[in-house]
């Protein structure tokens, strides 16, 4: 039993290793004709168009919705307020947290307690005179509700207030 003359056994090993990828990634060139480039392009264009039209439809429906009217809700009496303090309440719904601030100088403002970044609860820190979101260190100006530090992208939704005698009512939400 002798070696075959003219054949190098290492080249067979190399060839066997070189063909191993074919068994691990079986791709048949005749399957390449199942989807043409033109068909793929048509699919991509039609899918993009459908997504655009559906987004446009949702935007139009959002514009057509009438603003919700909320029933007035008694928040507090003027005698119950302390300057530089906050009163927490639920408005407009029972699960919507809000806060009434009696700022130094006698100004009353109310905001939704939901942070505009990721909807964490915002609290009033009287000692620092700021509205603070502890989730990502968001800070809002208590007089305007505008973000002054951290990741929040826009101001807090402001709650409209109405005073009747010594009672303070929440009457709506500014978006």
UniProtKB/TrEMBL annotation:
Coiled-coil segments on the chain, per record: none
TM spans (from-to): 40-64
Superkingdom in the source lineage: Bacteria
Presence of the UniProt keyword Transmembrane helix in the record: yes
GO cellular component terms, A-Z: membrane
Record's keyword terms, sorted: 2Fe-2S, Disulfide bond, Iron, Iron-sulfur, Membrane, Metal-binding, Transmembrane, Transmembrane helix
Pfam family, one: Rieske
Limits of the Rieske domain: 73-170
Transmembrane as UniProt keyword: yes
Cofactor: [2Fe-2S] cluster
Gene Ontology MF annotations: 2 iron, 2 sulfur cluster binding; metal ion binding; monooxygenase activity; oxidoreductase activity, acting on paired donors, with incorporation or reduction of molecular oxygen
Protein name: Rieske (2Fe-2S) domain protein
Species per Swiss-Prot/TrEMBL record: Thermobaculum terrenum (strain ATCC BAA-798 / CCMEE 7001 / YNP1)
The organism's taxonomic lineage, starting at the top: Bacteria, Bacillati, Chloroflexota, Chloroflexia, Candidatus Thermobaculales
């Amino acid at each position: 039993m002798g070696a075959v003359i003219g054949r190098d056994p290492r080249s067979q090993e190399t060839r066997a290793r070189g063909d191993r990828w074919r068994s691990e990634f079986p791709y048949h060139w005749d399957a390449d004709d199942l989807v043409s480039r033109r068909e793929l392009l048509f699919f991509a264009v039609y899918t993009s168009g459908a997504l655009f039209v559906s987004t446009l439809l949702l935007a139009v429906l959002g514009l057509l919705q009438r603003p919700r009217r909320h029933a007035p809700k008694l928040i507090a009496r003027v005698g119950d307020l302390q300057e530089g303090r906050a009163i927490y309440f639920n408005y407009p719904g029972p699960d919507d947290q809000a806060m009434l601030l009696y700022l130094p100088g006698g100004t009353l403002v109310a905001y939704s307690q939901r942070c505009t970044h990721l909807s964490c609860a915002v609290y009033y820190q009287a000692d620092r005179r700021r509205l603070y979101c502890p989730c990502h260190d968001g800070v809002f100006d208590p007089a305007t509700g505008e973000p002054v530090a951290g990741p929040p992208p826009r101001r807090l939704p402001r709650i409209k207030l109405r005073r009747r005698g010594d009672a303070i009512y929440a009457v709506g939400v500014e978006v």
